[in-house]
């Protein structure tokens, strides 16, 4: 099996978010799609380790934004490379709330949706949620960021919890938080990850 | 609700196919995503009207190919704008069979997968199927066709059964087979659809 075939799948880059029991949270995903048109429903896939999944299932609703080409990488780092268990992500971003009370980032986005969760499918390590769309808006005329451009232009990485995560065939050291790989024989003790800013203790050797 | 927000979602273009009870069939979809990485699983969404859904559910497995930028529009017309109830699509294309006996197109593709169906979620007009990947290959180094490029470069259209189908806000006549819109006050009696080749009797007036 040539696992590089998975890199041929096209995605956008999205942040899904919710508020549950007075806690705001959200995370970056690439697996969002429209599954029905009348009524309009979106599907999203989230890793069971994601704090955001707990918040969305608790709230029974979620916001989803489509990131734009001009998005600041800091927003992706904030929502993609930290756990909501450790960080108050929305305190680090401009945001508003939708009619369900769920927060969503307002900068670096090309479109936004609000959804009520209607269905759930357990797929082992991940959960697919279906949401009926209750709000949809295009707050700017920015171009959307594709997942391919995220990798090629933004030099983005794929963390371990992502559905599209691939074991690397490169030797070196991998950041366990954001997936950044340092190709080197030795990891300097004072090394700081250039993508997510974690120190050397977060790196794992890969052979 | 601004339904144009749905046009901001990024997809690739795929053909999924199967063989059931000695019948080959397949159709074009844009909703294919990886949902887990270990083991690797793909999700696909199909309209319940699609003959291909019946074949895949009967077979319990499917092939999926990623279409490439250099794909011939004839292949998309063959698999996207005809029903498998009326046409033997694979008789009109070059194809091979995977280890499950399912056929897949061999030209105009950037990657291919074979999957065994493991889960199913009924979403009203559509069904989401989850497939565990048993084969994955990159038969050429062609660039993948994105759904955005399909619309902008290939002048592709979206038929009514697609999850991303949108009612048009344009006045004129719409081809009920492929979704092509002629912006005009009158539909000439001898009009032939420039996308799928159907005659004027297949066109519906839109206001």
UniProtKB/TrEMBL annotation, chains A, B:
Q: Which PROSITE patterns match?
A: RUBREDOXIN_LIKE
One Pfam entry name: RUBY_RBDX
Where's the Rubredoxin-like domain? 170-206
Family matches, as SUPFAM superfamilies: FMN-binding split barrel, Rubredoxin-like
Q: Which residues form a coiled coil?
A: none
On the tree of life, the source organism's domain of life is Bacteria
List the keywords (alphabetical).
Oxidoreductase
Q: Name one GO molecular function term.
A: riboflavin reductase (NADPH) activity
Q: What is this protein called?
A: Nitric oxide reductase NADH:FprA oxidoreductase
Species name: Robinsoniella peoriensis
Q: Which gene encodes it?
A: hrb
């Amino acid at each position: 099996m040539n696992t590089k075939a998975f890199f041929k799948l096209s995605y956008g880059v999205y942040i899904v978010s919710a508020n549950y029991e007075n806690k705001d949270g959200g995370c970056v995903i690439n697996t969002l799609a429209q599954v029905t048109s009348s009524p309009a429903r979106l599907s999203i896939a989230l890793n069971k380790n994601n704090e955001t999944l707990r918040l969305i299932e608790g709230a029974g609703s979620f916001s989803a934004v489509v990131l734009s080409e001009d998005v600041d990488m800091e927003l992706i780092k904030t929502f993609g490379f930290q756990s909501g268990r450790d960080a108050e992500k929305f305190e680090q971003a401009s945001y508003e709330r939708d009619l369900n009370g769920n927060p969503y980032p307002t900068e670096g986005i090309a479109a936004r949706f609000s959804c009520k969760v209607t269905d759930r499918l357990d797929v082992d390590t991940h959960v697919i949620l279906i949401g009926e769309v209750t709000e949809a808006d295009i707050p700017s005329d920015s171009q959307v960021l594709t997942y391919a451009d995220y990798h090629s232009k933004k030099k983005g990485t794929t963390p371990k919890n992502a559905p599209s995560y691939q074991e690397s065939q490169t030797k070196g050291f991998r950041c366990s938080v954001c997936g950044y790989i340092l190709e080197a024989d030795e990891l300097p003790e004072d090394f700081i990850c250039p993508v997510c800013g974690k120190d050397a203790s977060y790196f794992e050797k890969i052979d």
